[in-house]
Task: structure prediction
Amino acid sequence: MKLGIDIGSTTVKLVLLDNNNSIVFSRYERHMSNVFDKVKELVEDMYDKYGDIGIQPVITGSGGLSLAKLLGIHFEQEVISCSKAVETLIPETDVAIELGGEDAKITFYGSTIEQRMNGTCAGGTGAFIDQMAVLLNTDAAGLNEAAKREKMIYPIAARCGVFAKTDIQPLINDGAAIEDLSASIFQAVVNQTISGLACGHTIKGKVAFLGGPLSFLSELRKRFIVTLGLKPEDVIYPDNSKYFVAIGAAMLAENRETVSLRSVVDRLNDSDPSLMTETKHIEPLFKDKDDYNAFMARHDQHKIKRKDIRKAKEETFLGIDAGSTTTKATLIDKDKNLLYSFYRSNEGNPIEAARSMLKELYSLLPPGAFIANTCVTGYGEGLIKAAFKADLGEIETMAHYKAAEAFLPGVDFILDIGGQDMKCMKIKDNAIYNIMLNEACSSGCGSFLETYAKSVNLDTEAFAEEALFADNPVDLGTRCTVFMNSKVKQAQKEGASIGDISAGLSYSVIKNALYKVIKLRNTDEAGDKIVVQGGTFMNNAVLRSIEKIIGKEVVRPDIAGLMGAYGCALIAMENYLEGTESSVLSADKLESFSVEHSNGRCKGCENQCILTINKFSDGSRFITGNRCEKGAGGAQHTNKLPNLYEYKFQRLFDYKPLSDFDAERGTVAIPRVLNMYENYPFWFTFFTELKFKVMLSPPSSKSIYEKGMETISSDTACYPAKLVHGHIKWLTENGAKWIFYPCLNYERNEDETAPNHYNCPIVATYPEVIANNMDDIFADNMVRFSHPFLPYDNDLRLADALFNEFKSFHIPKEQIMQAVTKARKEQTRFKNDIRKQGEYALKYARQHGKKTIVLSGRPYHLDPEINHGIDRLINSFDMVVLTEDSVAHMADLPRPLRVLDQWVYHSRLYKAASFVGTCDDVELIQLNSFGCGLDAVTTDQVEEICRNNNKLYTVLKIDEGSNLGAAKIRIRSLKAAMEEREKNGVKAIPDNKPYERKYFTEDMRQNYNILVPQMSPIHFGYLEEAMRSCGYNAVLLPPVDKNSVEEGLKYINNDACYPTIVTLGQIISALKSGEYDLNRTAVFMSQTGGGCRASNYVALLRKALKDLDMEQIPVVSFNMAGLETNPGFKITAKMGLRLAVGVVYGDLVMRILYATRPYEKVPGTCEKILDKWHDRIIDNIIHFNRKRYAENLKGIVEDFDRVERTGEKKPKVGVVGEILVKYHPNANNDIVGIIESEGGEAVVLDLLDFFLYGMYSKKFNYEKLSGSYKQMYVNKIGIAAVEWLRKPMRKALRESVHFEEPSYIEETAKAASEIISIGNQCGEGWLLTGEMIELIRGGVENVVCLQPFACLPNHVTGKGMMKAIRKMNPKANIVAIDYDPGASDVNQLNRIKLMMATAHKNMIETAEAL
Result:
């Protein structure tokens, strides 16, 4: 008998097969995180039934590894188990879609198995469905039943359970039907799975549905089938699909040793489950009882004055806070006494909650008292105000501020944590000047505590009590709440008490709120007068946690959960007109009150918003779902306010193409995407001048996005990039035969004083992704796709390049030159038009006394599908809207800035901010697309400019989700703050000082320690000595630990890439350790000056040092690009030679060490050889002697050649990717070690290649772009010099038995240019693609491609090229792994294990074929 045990994130599946692979016994049960006991129980059941039989056991599943180790039972990778079952039972499968509790997977079967798993987010998994079901007061099965009766699907974001809540909550509040919501939730899961996991791989052929959720939820399967357009014969829904992984594991047990079932039961009884422990603990909340009593006494002082409602006389003031999940109300009298309060869950029906509150209030109000004024705030403000005819509506931030100010006059920091939303407000000059809301993540909110308390059958209060005196609170870190579940359960089964968990969760809620959402760098930012409010702070454990974490005392009002309503009551009182009565529905009108809901679509514009129409009993209506006032039947303002977003969108694309008759040369199609929002006037004029008809794709929409969804190769690319696929697909479907979409590394140089004029890596090179991921579509439709790299910043060179590109049309060169000249004129005219309109709009605003907002973003943020109509929303608040490029020319930007200002679109943002700093009546809102890597740099800098000029700063994060709830709150709050500041006479204080950095001087060279962050341990050990020998006290920092990553997250913008956080965290950790004299320490950072954000590490570090009060520490930029100079540091020829020699030694050692260590017979032999050579290498680096150098290289290779080997054959695995993650074991979780422990040999190519790639690229830049001859020539000599150094190494390797020499850079470039242009020079650029192709051709068919989460260049040259590489070599076994502080190691490990298993399998198959 064969036994398969599959331990998933939420369930245990156990299957016993006989010799014919028939199921004899099976169980599927939730383990509630107590894996050990559940497995024990199921195995004992089986033993009771079958007695002591012989079995061959195998354990599999995401939670099975530690149990397998504990019991000494073989562990099999779950994907391999699943694939075994699929290949045996349903061999016709092309694609398997499998959803589990916390994971989602798609597996593609072909010549190699390719598998995609969800990474750091639980969006679209079983846990997500459960979370959504709770919101609708049902369970997953209930959702399934309801979905059978759906009539319409609402767009819901599945990227995050919390985002989805934000989409669903307003729909519930607006009365959408549960049937429609259920089906919409399933559709969201489908969209997330396809767009997030398919990544450019079309799901077609026969599709199998596996795993729990897809077994139990027929409607979820239906949504997949409909979305993928599957025919009935292509759907495979096998029996026992939920057991598939366990069945596969049992099948794989074939060759395993047979043991008795009794021995397994004994092992389970004798094992100690605590050995599976991984949990960390933190200090208790209170030292002792006295500590607790003092804390309670202090907080008992903050109480509101109360009075019995029966004694109320005359005017009373009602405040209602219609929140996302609860309705709160307070009634006060004119002395601010609290007469009545109400707090109740909405249960999906906010109107009913408000109605029952009013009925209760009227029944209590004595005859002499009446409601004089009513004010409503919160999520359902519009609906409740319309339904019950309240007098006033107020933005919730303002209501909370008013209430906090009443409790603690002069408050400067308010933190409000509710069930699923969190607000943090900073106050300055009696106005809110900064608001932060949790848009992307709810990991710091209270609903998690509540859900967890429920799961252990305690109410929230009892659960909180448990935490207060817990001895060992569990450290749960800061992470996605859906994943937090598994950490909590893990701790629980390791013996943590409920109290330990409760205390750990309280700490975690606060850490998430402060570090992930508010991104507090240090506690001084929290001000001195702090008020905490919101229901979550009624929990004393949470209250204590915030005081412990920030080290300050805070004020928690005794009505913390009612502060929004109390603030509203105060506002109602402030705005009361003597002698009037509130218009809120009277008691008798409440009796006859009723409401009906229906749905419709607004036809006012291309957005076609879905509307929910609420019709009240008096005939009035309230309409929600519309992004502007059109859908609500409100006419647009007759005297429409200027909106430069609308004007520019019209002006940009309002060109009339030639007729078919006049288009002598045919038609060219252009997608309306990314840089076309900048350069369309140029290209339209250019082609029209040459007698082409220009065909343009239509404005973006959700349906256009969905057209291209399955060709998207990287799920973490920004939404504007993802939309490109849909536009190209639309053009091919609508008859385009030639699509022109060029790659432009450089934009026109608008500002001679800026250090550079790049385009962002995505804007510059995304056409490469299209060419390689939509090639099948082009072939099927016979479309020619032109995407040349062009020197757009130099018209003469541009004309040459275009002449060559269009040779097949036989257009004379003069004509092309004329067309370019004309096009440039039109482009300039367009730009001047926008500037002129900006000045007009500003003049209009000032003449009419209107406020103005510069809505600052990228050119493509004009797209209404990307900005979701935020410009119109601002207009609807009676404010004029300008674009960043309509005001940038009016600014005088002091340079240098703190950041390296190298992207043209971003330069405009800085100038716009600088311009706003000179005006009292203009404010700035910055749009930031989710996943935009560069904004980690720009948002901080724009905020700094605004702050230095005493201006407000607002940033809106936008994604594919179109819910504008958070944006509305921010914009209304900004307007309220502008009015408040005007009232208080607060002015802008223009600050024209350039940024002053700390220089590294000659004197410092003698007595300063220079900290060098670690990047590649093998190389940097040699480079540290090279630096010291040149007279610098270089200190190589120790390896990174988890603490460095924590420090990095605290002080560096969390959207920065992982290497930044690792490197800078390492430096900050060292500086805070107390080991260095901070007045005699400098820091070294390399800068490449390329188009990726790595050159801004220096700027990010300087910001962190400022936040840490360590500005005296100079940051020394190590660069060859002439970016920054320091009097005390120069790269001399001597230093250059020593460093280069060090790198050659490092490359050689790395190459032969990795090729030998997996095979050494006596472990440790290789390390001994390295120790033996270490001093000789250092000596040769410092006292370079060519003859000795050649002898050393030869000697090292010979020593490694002589190592006694085991003689086994192992699969080789290439490691490529972003430079730091590729070479730094701490940044890649020791990938080389993992490959070796999984029975493979790691192949990591030379570090020198990265420098050679930069040098070789200059040839392409000179020949094809606007690079200079001098640059090309100097770099050509550089390559020759490097090869002169490499010559003896090459000779030694060629003559060796076991090793191979590195490729020449020309060969790598040639390989890369088969599928990608050498113009790809951001980050690792074409080198990354070239290395993958070379490795595979050199027999290394297994490749791991490593990148930081949201690494922009890698979207293109890494993930974007995998499809093309697999096409060249169907056996290519490539896996992409994202690194991110939140990424789970288990997930990375699973992906590597799968790749290794496939590698072993392929190796065996190849051997058998021979």
In short: Residues 813-847 form the longest helix (35 residues). The chain has 53 helices and 39 strands.
